[in-house]
DNA sequence: GCCAACGTTGGC
DNA sequence: GCCAACGTTGGC
């Protein structure tokens, strides 16, 4: 099983939204970055777990654990002219953008903040993609040891 | 709201 | 293939 970290802005999509969704499951659509696309399409597997991370908000950090319940498939919002994430360059016969379905596993007992994660950047969390300077990827892998350590902070 | 970092686009 | 312009991300 692999581990991931997936970013969302809580004003756009929050853990409450996920908890309220049918089956506490949602399609993770709208990713428009090739590196992230490759992970969605080629690397994420059913049963993988992912941290739900809040960005662009008062207290950036990890708030929940999710599970991948459906592996990569074409993102239909790319074909919808009226959709905010529409991309004319994505041909339905050769889709450019992919998504997975995620299910809420559980909320964390507390938010593990970016500030707190940073304190361990030089040691326990050395190499964690989220902490790399200038990192903007909305989906990043988390090594098993990093995953374990982050949960130990909870 | 600011701004640094970085991905993408497009002219050449 | 280079690189400037531009748009987006995301912390602060």
Kindly describe this structure.
- The chain has 154 residues and is α+β, with helices and mostly antiparallel strands.
- It has a single domain (3-143), classed as ph1033 like domains (ph1033 like fold), CATH 3.10.590.
- It is built from four helices and six strands.
- The chain has helices at 15-20, 34-43, 114-118, 144-153; strands spanning 3-8, 25-27, 49-54, 61-74, 98-113, 139-142.
- A hairpin with a 6-residue loop joins β3 (49-54) and β4.
- The two termini are 21 Å apart.
- The model has no long low-confidence stretch (mean pLDDT 93).
- The chain binds a DNA duplex (12 and 12 nucleotides) through residues 7, 9, 32-35, 55-57, 60, 114, 133-138.
Per the principal axes of the C-alpha atoms, what is the gross shape?
Answer: globular
Q: Name the CATH homologous superfamily.
A: ph1033 like domains
CATH architecture: Roll
- What percent of the residues sit in helical stretches (DSSP H or I)? 10-25%
Q: Could you name the CATH topology? A: ph1033 like fold
Report the strand count.
6
CATH class: Alpha Beta
Count of DSSP-assigned helices: 4
> Quaternary state, please?
single chain
Q: Specify Rg, calculated over alpha carbons.
A: 15 Å
Query: Given the helix and strand composition, which structural class is it?
Result: alpha+beta
Order of helices and strands: EHEHEEEHEH
Distance between the termini: 21 Å
Describe the main β-sheet briefly. 6 strands, mixed
Instruction: State the low-pLDDT regions, or none.
Output: none
Q: Averaged pLDDT, please?
A: 93
Strand order of the largest sheet: 2-5-4-3-1-6
In terms of DSSP E residues, the strand content is 25-35%
Number of domains: 1
């Amino acid at each position: 099983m692999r581990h991931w970290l997936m970013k969302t802005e809580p004003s756009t999509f929050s853990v409450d939204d996920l908890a309220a969704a049918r089956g506490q499951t949602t399609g993770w659509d709208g990713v428009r970055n090739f590196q992230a696309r490759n992970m969605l399409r080629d690397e994420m597997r059913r049963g993988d777990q992912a941290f739900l991370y809040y960005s662009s908000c008062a207290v950036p950090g990890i708030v929940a654990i999710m599970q991948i319940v459906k592996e990569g498939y074409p993102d239909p919002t790319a074909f919808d002219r009226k959709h905010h994430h529409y991309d004319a360059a994505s041909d339905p016969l050769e889709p450019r953008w992919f998504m997975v379905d995620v299910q809420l596993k559980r909320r964390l007992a507390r938010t593990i903040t970016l500030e707190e994660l940073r304190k361990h950047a030089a040691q326990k969390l050395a190499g964690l993609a989220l902490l790399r300077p200038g990192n903007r990827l909305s989906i990043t892998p988390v090594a098993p040891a990093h995953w374990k350590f982050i949960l130990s902070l909870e």
